[in-house]
From TrEMBL:
Domain of life of the native organism: Eukaryota
Glycosyltransferase 61 catalytic domain residues: 247-439
Keyword entries, A-Z: Membrane, Transmembrane, Transmembrane helix
Name of protein: Glycosyltransferase 61 catalytic domain-containing protein
Transmembrane segments: 7-25
Pfam families: Glyco_transf_61
Amino acid sequence: MRNKLYISRIAIILCFIILVTWLFIFRLPICQNQSAFKPHFPPRPSGSQVASIESWQMPDWVQRYNLTHLFDWTWDKNDDFVRCRVSTVYSPQPIACRIQSTTVVNDVLSYFDIHSDKGCIVDNVARLPNFTPHPLPRARSLSNTCSSLNIDHKWTLCKQSQSELDQRLPATTRFVTIAVFNAYIDTGYCHSQLPGTIFTEHATFHFQSWTNNLCYNDPIFYIPRVHPEHQYTELIDSIGVYLQAPGHFVPEQLPRLLRLLATAPKTAKVLVAKGGIADSLLDVLVERGIVTRDRIIPYDNNNRPYYFAKIVYRSESWPYLTDKNNSHHLYDRTDMQLVHRALATDGGDDDQQSKNKRNLVILIKRKDGGTRSIVEHLDMVAFINSRLKKSLGLHLEIFEAEGHVRDHIALFRRARIIVGPHGAGMLNVVWSSAGTYVVEIGYNKGMTFPQMYAEMSLHLEQHYWICKGYGNYDGPIHVDMDDFIYIFNEIIHEIEVETR
Ligand SMILES: *[C@@H]1O[C@H](CO)[C@@H](O)[C@H](O)[C@H]1NC(C)=O
Ligand SMILES: *[C@@H]1O[C@H](CO)[C@@H](O)[C@H](O)[C@H]1NC(C)=O
């Protein structure tokens, strides 16, 4: 009975919100047809215009960090670079208004094929293939560990065959970067933590389903008034799901940002999340010569201003996935290799040259008594120390996430073995080389133990192990010491064989 009351109350509130939104939008004037004043978009610029626009140049860092195989620079190949960037005389709508009809674009490739006056394809590259057979997590017994952690029906990695995994992780096949003309950047019409959708007076671009929210594929009819200081000629839109959360920023916004910085012109300003790990990672990008400070426009998530640019750039995986059972597009090898090489190598294949410097066993420690802190932390320290024979030259380092991200990167580049409970500390596996041993300790109650770090680590070509743990996502957890001892001994044995 209570439940029914509660549900009807929620229904009333929802109806009210929808009504207010509709009233708000329909009160607005209909947008003026700006294309009436707009000169026709020139298909080919004249000679003098070409001379005034520089030709496409690959950024130095793409070569320096050995990333050229991750892009194809479609617009340079197609001689589109100049066509796409010849400026049109255009300004955003002078007052907020509504448009009467618009399209939702899921397939950007076919849209820009037909509507070449609305934007163009900047890059369209096949993602890196998976290893075949697709690697599986290692465990003392994978089926037993999966059922003990209640992930046997949740993790694709627990329930699918290796040939199925190859099709599903990810289910996308390409990465596509687009340039959209006369475009606005949404501030979170669907949810305040989900900004970044590009829309124009003609279309709303949802070219990957990066949220499960119900409104994820809705068109945007509302055209905002954009303050002059938020209007640009060219703007890179890297913002996305949960702006500063490390677990979203590093594997989702960071690879997008890198793809955009690699393929869009250096003259474009760069809209990025502000605060938390986003700020520290931008320091690293600046130090590594990937972007200059003067290009960065921090997105203010409190005031959430609208942005407009004559050309807005965006990058996502392709095609758009609608099948909920088969909708995996994150943490693939391309993104992981891109992030790893750009932020944690000196260029090229670092694994050989730095192998002798990789002498750390890193044990990730969460705050004492905090969520997923390990009750047996000191027992683990004692056991690890007892196993580290001098002959292997390995040293134990306890990681508590102190200091700047640049120090974390330097530390994890030296990792030979990483051990830790599920949590943001595990993100640091992306700075570690292929061949690093990773042991993630799970838990069996509360929110399901997520699969993300397993995918990230496996796609980085690391030896990823799952260790049993007991307890709730929200509290301290116990590690299964028998399981841990078995796994750690196995790893030490493998390293002994490797170095023999
Ligand atoms: C998705 O998976 C569920 C459970 O395995 C199944 O019942 C459903 O039919 C599947 N849906 C599609 C579209 O394949
Ligand atoms: C650059 O990357 C490619 C592809 O991963 C690899 O085959 C090649 O050896 C790398 N080059 C250097 C100099 O490490």
